[in-house]
Write a structure and sequence with these properties.
Layout (H helix, E strand, L loop, with lengths): L36 E2 L5 E3 L1 H11 L2 H4 L24 H16 L2 H16 L25 H15 L2 H15 L4 H4 L8 H14 L2 H13 L12 H7 L2 H9 L2 H18 L23 E3 H18 L2 H13 L15 E3 L1 E2 L30 H5 L3 H7 L2 E3 L5 E3 L5 E5 L2 E7 L6 E7 L4 E9 L7 E4 L2 E3 L6 E9 L4 E5 L4 E5 L5 E5 L2 E5 L3 E8 L4 E7 L5 E3 L6 E4 L14 E9 L25 E8 L6 E2 L13 E10 L5 E4 L10 E4 L9 E5 L4 E6 L5 E4 L10 E4 L9 E5 L5 E5 L5 E4 L10 E4 L9 E5 L2 E2 L1 E3 L5 E4 L10 E4 L9 E5 L5 E5 L5 E4 L10 E4 L9 E5 L5 E5 L5 E4 L10 E4 L9 E3 L1
Parallel strand pairs: 7-11
Antiparallel strand pairs: 1-6, 2-8, 3-4, 5-25, 6-7, 8-9, 9-10, 10-15, 11-14, 12-13, 12-15, 16-17, 17-18, 18-24, 19-20, 21-23, 22-23, 23-24, 26-29, 26-37, 27-28, 29-30, 30-33, 31-32, 33-34, 35-36, 38-42, 39-50, 40-41, 42-43, 44-45, 46-47, 48-49
Length: 919
């Protein structure tokens, strides 16, 4: 699957050109009706806390973005003057901005929207194309129609709100233009995965015009655009969030149940791999990456709102309340934290676990992008897509709260304080939901009328209580819709109670999250906000923690619920209307890494001797710094990310680190011994962040420590249960010659051998770092390993699994082929030869070159210096591989992420493609 960056267009394979629409394979077959219809924009008015969010948007980034974004200049914009430039930014912004006006009735926004819509419509040419002329042929010589997709939605909403017939005419001509384009239009660029957005508008227009050509175009789009049918067509987070629903949209014309079911199956596939934490998003800090599904991974702000929009559409198509549940999960738990509490600035990614938000690029590929993504700022250029696009979130939510059915029914699908007008019927929804459990509906009608009234029962609610005018009505457990069909009149009151109680969900690695109704809760971390740049009007904020965050929850506990705060402005720490009290223990080894990114989750339940503490949990959307995915305590598992098996050899004696008598007991002495292959000679370096490691015995499962946590010279080094004490933590100090010193964090002393002995069973001790040879050790990877690029997450292999001399060494997805297996063979002076298990040849440099970008190859093991490599310690249990002949580091050509990219050597300049993990 392709990896995409906002800075790099996906280059597709152009299909054969086709200048006309498909033959009318189903010209007489109108799309089947959706389960629920959306109301006209403006039919629903928010109130309460929901109105607060929209007011923040009116006076915040979306509502005032024209003041500062160069992409929204009316007099210098290709959507107004086609000869000017313009791409997705104006359409992204306008669809959210316009709908903000429709749901609030704000006169300024409505007038401004009308001005923009009129200008866009005025750009339409005789052939039906509208907007920036540059995109007629900007994508490999043909039209780039991706930026038109969000503009279609902006035009549709305007047409519905103002009953503007010009839009139907303009879109009819535009789709005639699209139908005349070659098939490559549907294959190339960002649009290939997002054509479902266009299909949605095609169906809308067909319902109004009955034009069969629109159905033909739908078939053609589905046939040539990215294949989402039971397939993850892209791991780019926004592509997925928009694209996965396309088969369900196509089902409306195909009738094939495979298409309807595909959205469920593909959603489950991405979430099972990358969505194993709360909040409703997935690990997509640009692209989802194999091996990077931790709760610290981010979900792009664009991804949040596009995922919400997809779930809202799928609710209407399928009638399944599960999708409405998923909409609420994102809206209540993710969306508010995408912005600062005042709604003035946003950030690029929001994470389920995040303990510092700063404006520094992360160079360890914790996130895929190489630019800073976490600080709150206007982000006009660096974040670019997100601040322009986020505005659809709350307005679309409001517009999808109430739906209708073909038999005249009204559906309360998403909850929140609001009033809906359907014809002459008005229903007020009075509630503090999701911060309260009761929703009261008050009906006003000019005369008695019979219709079905449906109310969604969320999936988390097993025992809803429903009454009409005080009389009980049977309601099913969720996820279901409860439908009441009766003759209604003014003054009728429907009351739905959704009882809430704290509950937990268990995720990958036995992590746990805490829910209360539709809300997920986060540890309350004191937030230190610093406006490091920007202005009062348009600030740039970093947020740092002012309290401890590294807690695990006790399993099986009961939580205490307290209410208060300010339900009208709920998404701040100070105002959180609900707080839970939990019991937790600190996990000292859970730290941030060297760039202040929270450490990855470890499998639990974990061991910790820290005392039990009462901690406060708040709704996760009220917390910009948050731990929402907690380790469970009460087990015997130590903390840290373990590396490959290794032996640890002493320079002075040539012997390896061992356990006296092969003991598995606590406090057993660590000694040196001949490397005779016993299991007590095998160790793993366990990364605990900040460049620190624990040294875990594969034989005993215990870790290297110092007897009684002594800080004295010659104190015995022992093994002990991994209970989090500081004497279990070490730092690898690289001498640059293949040898290392291991310095104890507790004592500051280094690992050595008593009296510099060279004998078997000599005691291993700690001592002042005085430069003696017994303080030097080397790491010898044990057995077969895979060598994974930190930058791309791909592993070292041989092109086409060749066994020939001079075959190219490349990177490739870790698919289990034998050419991905390597063995480190110890050589003199701290060097290794690295032998491929498939070919039997060793890693070298083509023609023994010493130049930058010289190709890495495999070759017969003939003793040349380019076959020798040293392990150089990096932070976080990663390594650089230095060539003996050239002194350069193993790297990937041009820092590529692609399969089959050439592996090269290069000067040690610190780029992440020079850093490797041993698996």
């Amino acid at each position: 699957m392709p990896s995409l960056s906002r800075r790099t267009l996906l280059k597709g394979t152009a299909a054969a050109a086709g200048a006309t629409m498909l033959s009318s394979q189903s010209a007489d077959a109108a799309p089947r009706p959706v389960a629920y219809e959306r109301l006209r924009p403006g039919a629903i008015r928010p109130s309460g806390w929901l109105a607060t969010q929209l007011d923040r948007q009116l006076n915040g980034l979306n509502g005032r973005f024209q003041e500062i974004s160069q992409y929204l200049r009316y007099n210098d914009n290709g959507w107004v003057q086609p000869e000017r430039g313009g791409w997705e930014e104006l359409p992204y912004w306008l669809r959210g901005y316009g709908d903000l006006g429709y749901v609030t009735g704000d006169a300024r926004v409505l007038a401004d929207t009308e001005r923009w819509i009129n200008a866009v419509l005025a750009t339409q040419a005789a052939d039906g194309y509208f907007g920036p002329a540059e995109h007629r042929a900007s994508l490999y010589g043909h039209a780039d129609l991706w930026p038109h997709m969000p503009m279609l939605h902006a035009l549709r909403s305007w047409a519905e709100y103002r009953a503007d017939s010009r839009v139907e005419s303009a879109l009819t001509r535009y789709f005639q233009f699209v139908a005349r384009q070659p098939d490559a239009v549907f294959v190339d660029g960002w649009g290939t995965t997002r054509w479902g957005d266009t299909i949605d508008v095609l169906h809308w227009l067909h319902a109004r015009t009955g034009d069969p050509a629109l159905i033909d175009l739908t078939h053609r789009i589905h046939r040539h655009s990215a294949n989402w049918v039971d397939n993850v067509a892209s791991l780019h987070n926004v592509n997925f969030a928009q694209g996965f629903r396309e088969p369900a949209q196509y089902w409306l014309v195909s009738g094939d149940p495979v298409h309807r079911g595909s959205a469920y199956r593909v959603y489950d596939r991405i979430m099972s791999s990358y969505g194993q934490f709360p909040g409703g998003g997935f690990a997509g800090d640009e692209n989802a990456r194999p091996g990077f599904g931790d709760p610290r991974q981010g979900f792009e702000t664009c991804g949040v709102v596009e995922f919400m929009a997809s779930h809202e559409l799928l609710t209407r198509i399928t009638g399944d309340p599960l999708w409405a549940d998923r909409t609420e999960e994102l809206a209540f738990n993710m969306l508010p934290a995408c912005l600062d509490p005042q709604g003035k600035v946003s950030h690029y990614v929001t994470s389920a676990n995040s303990v510092q938000l700063d404006d520094f690029a992360k160079t360890r590929r914790q996130f895929q992008n190489d630019f800073a993504m976490q600080a709150y700022k206007p982000g006009i250029t660096r974040y670019r897509c997100c601040p322009h696009n986020y505005g659809q979130g709350w307005p679309y939510y409001v517009e999808e709260m109430w739906l209708t059915t073909t038999d005249g029914g009204i559906v309360a699908s998403l909850y929140g304080p609001s009033t809906v007008t359907v014809g002459t019927t008005k229903i007020e929804q009075q509630t503090t939901y999701p911060f309260g459990d009761t929703i009261t509906f008050r009906l006003t009608l000019p005369q008695r009328r019979s219709f079905p009234f449906s109310l969604r029962i969320p999936g988390w609610c097993a025992n809803p209580q429903l009454t009409v005018n005080g009389s009980p009505v049977t309601a099913p457990a969720g996820p279901k819709y409860a439908t009441i069909t009766r003759t209604w009149q003014t003054g009728d009151v429907v009351r739905l109670r959704l009882p809430m109680a704290p509950r937990t969900r268990v995720w990958r690695d036995n992590a746990v999250s805490v829910d209360y109704g539709a809300l997920t809760f986060a540890l309350r971390i004191e937030e230190r906000w610093n406006r490091y740049a920007g202005s009062v009007e348009w600030p740039e904020y970093e947020v740092k923690p002012g309290s401890a965050w590294n807690y695990g929850l006790l399993p099986g506990q009961r939580f205490t619920v307290a209410t208060g705060g300010n339900v009208h402005d709920p998404f701040t720490l100070a105002n959180a209307p609900i707080r839970l009290t939990a019991h937790a223990r600190a996990i000292p080894d859970w730290t941030v890494d060297s760039e202040n990114v929270v450490g990855t989750m470890n499998s639990g339940p974990v061991a910790t001797n820290e005392p039990v503490k009462r901690v406060t949990l708040v709704p996760m959307a009220a917390a910009r710094l948050r731990i929402t995915s907690f380790p469970q305590t009460g087990g015997g598992k130590g903390w840290g990310t373990q590396g490959a098996l290794c032996r640890i050899q002493n320079l002075n004696s040539g012997k390896v680190l061992a356990i006296d008598g092969m003991s598995t007991a606590n406090s057993a002495r660590i000694v040196q011994f001949d490397d005779n292959g016993t299991t007590d000679h095998l160790w793993r370096l366990v990364d605990v962040g900040n460049g620190q490691v624990k040294v875990r015995s594969e034989h005993a499962g215990k870790v290297l420590g110092v007897d009684r946590m002594s800080t004295a010279n010659s104190a015995q080094v022992v093994q002990y249960d991994d209970n989090g004490t500081t004497d279990h933590r070490w730092v690898l100090l690289d001498d640059g010659d293949g040898w290392f010193r291991l310095r104890n964090i507790n004592s500051g002393k280094v690992l050595g051998v008593q009296d510099m002995s060279t004998g078997n069973s000599a005691r291993v001790v700690q001592f002042d770092d005085n430069g003696t040879a017994d303080h030097l050790w080397r790491i010898i990877p044990e057995g077969i390993v895979r060598i994974q690029s930190l930058n791309s997450t791909k592993v070292l292999g041989v092109d086409r699994m060749s066994t020939a001399d001079s075959a190219k060494v490349v990177q490739f997805a870790d698919n289990g082929t034998r050419d991905h297996d390597w063995r480190f063979l110890p050589d003199a002076n701290g060097y290794f030869r690295i032998r491929n298990e498939n070919s039997g040849k060793v890693l070298g440099i083509d023609l023994m070159s010493t130049a930058n970008s010289a190709h890495a190859v495999q070759f017969t093991d003939n003793g040349t210096a380019d076959h020798l490599w040293r392990l150089r310690a990096d932070t976080d249990n990663t390594w650089r591989l230095q060539n003996a002949n050239s002194g350069k580091m193993l790297a990937v050509d041009r820092m590529s992420y692609e399969d089959s990219a050439q592996v090269v050597q290069y000067d040690d300049n610190g780029t992440p493609d020079h850093v490797w993990r041993l698996l």
